[in-house]
């Protein structure tokens, strides 16, 4: 993935430790602090809490990766679409969460980044047509 160099790559690997300990990509995203923790009891929602739970170094790393990933024109266009649709803060949060899920599967499968897996074939073709 564009933007992940030696420092960010090593941060991801060393702070994650063993990816097998996370059963789902959602568990990994929660550990990385890229999703909000919902406060619930007996089926009732009481807002959000626990913003300090998880790994702060991974939260920082994913924020940096999201900014650097925008050097790719297709990723930038996708991030800009999310910003327009959801607003700047929520769009950035969705973009970071999508990157986190992609990295979870990259680490789990031990395969490099594939934009077709990231976007889906149809969406990737649509985005590349709009960019070029």
Please describe what this structure looks like.
With 132 residues, this protein is mainly α. The chain contains seven helices and two strands; from the N terminus they run ααββααααα. It has helices at residues 6-16, 25-31, 56-69, 73-86, 88-109, 115-119, 121-131, and strands spanning 38-41, 44-48. It has a two-stranded antiparallel ribbon with strand order 1-2. β1 and β2 form a beta hairpin. It starts with 5 loop residues before the first helix and ends with a helix. The mean pLDDT is 90.
Number of strands: 2
CA radius of gyration is 16 Å
Oligomer: single chain
Question: What is the count of helical runs?
Answer: 7
Separation, N- and C-terminal Cα atoms: 20 Å
Profile the largest sheet: 2 strands, antiparallel
Order of helices and strands: HHEEHHHHH
- Give the class from helix and strand content and strand pairing: mainly alpha
Report the sheet-strand fraction.
5-15%
Give the overall average pLDDT. 90
Write out the strand line-up for the largest beta sheet, numbering strands in chain order: 1-2
From the spread of the alpha carbons, the general shape counts as globular
**How much helicity do the residues have?**
55-70%
Report the uncertain regions.
none
Considering the chains and any ligands shown, give keywords for the structure.
132 residues; mainly alpha; two-stranded antiparallel sheet; 2 strands; globular
